[in-house]
Each structure stands twice: as structure tokens, then as C-alpha cells.
Amino acid sequence: MTIPRVLVVDDDPELRSMLTQLLQQNGCIALPATGEASIRKHLAAGRIDLILLDVMLGDESGVEICSRLREDQSVPIIMISALSSDKDRMAGYAVGADDYIAKPFNPELLFARIRAVRARSHRTSSLAYRRRKAVFRFAGWTYDSKQNEVLSPEGYLVALSRRETALLQALLANPHIPLTRQEIAAALHVTSDDEAPSDSEGRAVDVLVGRLRAKIEANPKHPEMLRTERGVGYVFAVDVATEEP
Amino acid sequence: MTIPRVLVVDDDPELRSMLTQLLQQNGCIALPATGEASIRKHLAAGRIDLILLDVMLGDESGVEICSRLREDQSVPIIMISALSSDKDRMAGYAVGADDYIAKPFNPELLFARIRAVRARSHRTSSLAYRRRKAVFRFAGWTYDSKQNEVLSPEGYLVALSRRETALLQALLANPHIPLTRQEIAAALHVTSDDEAPSDSEGRAVDVLVGRLRAKIEANPKHPEMLRTERGVGYVFAVDVATEEP
DNA sequence: ACCGATCTGTTACCAAGTGTTACCCGGGCG
DNA sequence: CGCCCGGGTAACACTTGGTAACAGATCGGT
User: Fold this and answer.
1) How deeply is B151 buried, as exposed, middle or buried, from its count of CB atoms within 10 A (0-12, 13-18, 19+)?
2) ipTM, 2 decimals?
3) What is the DSSP string of A111-177?
4) Which H or E run contains B30?
5) Whole-angstrom Cα distance, residue B197 to residue B210?
6) Contacts of A174 in chain B (CB under 8 A)
7) Distance from C-alpha of B184 to C-alpha of B189, rounded to nearest angstrom
8) Domains identified in chain B and CATH numbers
9) Which of B39, B36, B38, B28 is CA-nearest to residue B5?
């Protein structure tokens, strides 16, 4: 599982930085945000795995923000509040929160819930957490991760290089979810040791995607499966069926 | 949303029938089960939307059952327990429970959580939150929002850019209603978060309208469909028929 | 260790999309 | 008749992604 990217939404700078630090120390990428506008900016800008949303935000209401976000977003949301009555919890659930934690909270419990929410979203968005080898079928193609072979709809066997294999697996693990170039690069480098985490603003990913397209897209000019999200990254845009061996 | 089918797992007959009744009275189909074997039988037999799983099951442990179910099942699970310590809750989350409720619980809160868990699983199981795709027909033209293609009355295929697509969708959604440039600009920028709605009265919309006209107006000099409302904005001036796929 | 085949990242160039600017036209009005 | 205003649009600039070509890295066989 990749490193979770968590958006911390709180108007109190002290609590915000406390939460941010806590998350960072436990292996998350924590991104601070202050209100709905900045949440939406982050959502538009890149992948967010989870939102930690304080209910009391001074001028804005966390409940209202959650409700509005749910109009078009499915990102997991955990609400945090000093209010712990059943009525308040129900309000949170009613507007689509995935979980509700009362302050003061046990950090361990917070992480347990974060893990639970993330595991659940992985579970539901197919198979990312399954590490066993499997056979994938998509749009007539077959990818056997055990044999590392790709079979075209016409039955031709296509050989993939290591990098191409890793790219395909990353995409298959997240169908319909846009992956940024950074995320793809991270997924490619899990095998060999991470080098400079710097923004090596190279075009390696673009080139790699092009090479994979040349192999598994019937017509690379009109990508059906491996679609480009301009300004964002790439998406595997067809449904994927998984078979356990 | 269809009627939820809930599996009630408890070894205490009294509590089980109490829960079952409570759920039935509130519009659920409640199915009683007593242990892992009977849970799996139900899962194999038909659709189950949610499992209510008591932690204390006499000879079997709810935590262990949950853990084993999670090896191959992604059905939402809410655990119920008399134990409410952080440690116990964490154990529940750790084995993949979607939520954890301590006894005695407020029935309203239980239903709020059931709704939350079900809404979430709808959200994440793709389709539900995916934007509606449809086919629009107007003045002999066809716009397929799924393929993002426009078919002219003569049968020629016209490709639209992203912006042009967004503009056409905004217009199709409001036939015969004049849209101001600000409104159109707002509709175009939903994807990439734009900042201040400041002055910046550029001519981007005008140019974009011109480009769209060049593609879908038979004679751009005499616009029939995409009409200009002088001093106001633009109107889509023909009737639009929508077909759900 | 040597050699060739393959893989992979970088660079450079190209095409497409989009916003801005500048200039044009036409109509309403003095 | 000349002026102004609103809109049309050509031309340009800038950004983003696709990809060919090149060079270094890797790997396997001898």
C-alpha cells in the first residue's frame, strides 16, 4: 500500500500542526488545509486518500463542508469534534462522514481508524491490498502477474519489461483512479532503492506510458484504457476483473 | 437505494430477535445468523448489504470471524460489543471492521451508522458516483457524452477538446436559457480550481464559443443553435432530447 | 572480462489546447 | 456622417503531453 496522503482541516494552527506532525511521524503525508476552498484545491491538485475534518472551523461548519463535498467527492472523511453526543455523531454520519472521533482522542485509535478507512477504500476499489498473484482481465486483454505475461484479445503474447510490468500493476490496482506522475514514479521505484525524492521533473513516466501504450493499446492514438488526465496524470479507464489462481 | 439486507449475527436469541425486529421496523430486511458457518451460507446464497456482528459469540470470537471473512469478502461489517475500550475498538478496526458500536447503543445512532456505511459502499463501488452519461440529440446532431464525440447530421464525427466539451455540456444542460459569460466561465473551471472571481474579463469564453461554433454550426455566420444574446451572453436555442444509456 | 541485446532515462522537437491581444465589423446614436 | 460599444476571430504565446532518438545502464552468455 502506498503512503497515505491525508488532508488535515482545522482552523486552529496549533492543533493543525500537532495533527500534521503526528501523522508525519507515523508514516503519512499530511497536508494542512483551512477551509472548503483549500480542500477543493487540494482535491483538484492531486490524490488525497483521506480528509481529517474538524467540525468546528470558526466561520465555516465542518458538517456543511462535508455535506457539500459529498455532492461530488467520494474521498474518505473522518470528522473530529469536541462534541460527542449521539446527536452530533449522527449529524456527521448523515452528511456522509466515514467516521467520527471525539476529542480528546487516543492517537492510537486515530491511526487504527485511519487504517480501517483506508483498508476499506482499498477493499472496495478492488484489490490493491491483495498481494497474491492473480490473473487480471480487462477489455479483452489478460495479464497474468504470475507468469508476467500479457495476452492480447487476439491471443498474441506480449512481453513487458520490468518497468512496464510495474506500471501496469500500479494501474490495474487502481482502476478509474487517476494517478499522478509522482505516484507512478513512486510505485515504479519500490523495487530498487528510492533515489532522490526530489521532483526529478523528468519525462520518464510519460515515455514509459507511451511504451506501454504501444504494446497494449490497440490504437495508441485513441487511448481507451490508459487515458491521460491532462494536468493530473494517467488513469486506467476500463473495468478490471481479477481471478485468484 | 434499494432496501438493505442486513445479516444479524448474535448467539443470544433474545438480543438477536430484538435487533432483527428493530431493523425490520425501520425498513431493513434482517436475516438472523449465529456463527461463521451461517454467515458464509448467507453470503453464498444471496446479496447481503451489511453484517452486524457481535464481538462476543460464546464459543466463537467475532474478531476472529471478521478477520477470516475479510480474507475474501468486502461486505461492510459493523461490530457490536459491550467492550468499549480503545483497545477493543482498535482490535475491531484492525481486522477490517467498518465501524464499531458499544452496547448499550442508541438505536438512532445505529441506523445512522448503517446508512453511513451503506452510502459509503455505494459511493466507492464505482458506478454510483460516476457522472451520469447520456446521449443528447439536437437539430440533427448527436452528442455522446460517454465517448465525448459529436456526430453531425451528415454523419461526420467531430472531436471536441476538453473545454469545448465542457462548454457544450453547460449549454445542453440549460437549453433556451441564456448563460452569462461568468456563468459559462464558472462551468468551465470546475475541474481546475480557479482563484478570485476578480476582474480578469478576458475574451476566453468568446473565443471558445467561436471555436465550438466552427465545429458544430453548419454555418457559423448564421448561428442557429448557439445564439448570441447581445449584452447578456449565449443561449443554446434549439430543443435538446436526452437519452439515458 | 568482453560483447551484444535489451532496458531505461534524458533530451529535443512536435502537436494540441487554450488564453490574450489586437484588429475588424456592424449597429445604434449623437 | 463619425463615434462608440459589443462581439467575432486571426494571430500569437504559453503550457502540456507524445514520442523519436540518443546514451548510459543492465544483464546474460561465453
Assistant:
1) middle
2) 0.52
3) HHHHHHHHHHHHHHSTTTT--S--EEEETTEEEETTTTEEE-TTS-EE---HHHHHHHHHHHTSTT-
4) strand B29-33
5) 23
6) none
7) 9
8) 5-129 (3.40.50.2300), 135-243 (1.10.10.10)
9) B28
Three cell numbers at A187? 510505485
Local confidence pLDDT in tens for the 245 residues of chain A? 566 788 889 888 788 888 888 887 777 778 888 888 888 877 766 678 889 998 887 777 888 788 777 766 778 888 888 877 777 777 777 777 888 888 778 788 888 888 877 777 666 543 333 344 578 888 888 888 777 788 888 878 888 888 898 889 888 877 776 777 877 876 776 433 333 333 446 788 999 999 999 998 877 666 778 988 887 788 888 888 777 65
* A192 CA, D26 C1': Å apart: 13
Q: Which nucleotides of C are covered by protein (CB under 7 A)?
A: 6-12, 16-22
| pTM of structure | 0.52
- In DSSP terms, A140 is beta-bridged to none
**Cβ-based contacts with strand C at under 7 Å:** A 159, 161-164, 188, 200, 202-204, 207-208, 211; B 159, 161-164, 188, 200, 202-204, 207-208, 211
For A79, list phi and psi in degrees, rounded to 5. -95, 140
Q: Which three cell numbers stand for residue A200?
A: 526529478
- Interface residues on B facing A, Cβ-Cβ cutoff 8 A: 70, 74, 76, 86, 89-90, 93-94, 96-99, 106, 108-109, 112-113, 115-116, 119-121, 123-126, 129, 162, 191-193
CA gap A15, A154 in Å, rounded = 58
CA distance B106 to B169: 46
Mutate: best of A51, A120, A126, A230, partner B, most B CBs <10 A: A120
- Residue identified by cell 515515455 is A207
Q: Find the chain A residues whose C-beta atoms sit closer than 8 A to any C-beta of B.
A: 37, 40-41, 44-45, 72, 74, 76, 86, 89-90, 93-94, 96-99, 106, 108-109, 112-113, 115-116, 119-121, 123-125, 176, 230-231, 239
Buried b (16+ CB within 10 A) or exposed e, B193-213: eeeeeeeeeeeebeebbebbb
3-state secondary structure of B50: strand
The radius of gyration of chain A from alpha carbons, rounded to an integer in Å, stands at 20
The residues near A184 (Cβ < 8 Å, ≥ 6 apart) are: A167, A170, A205, A233, A234
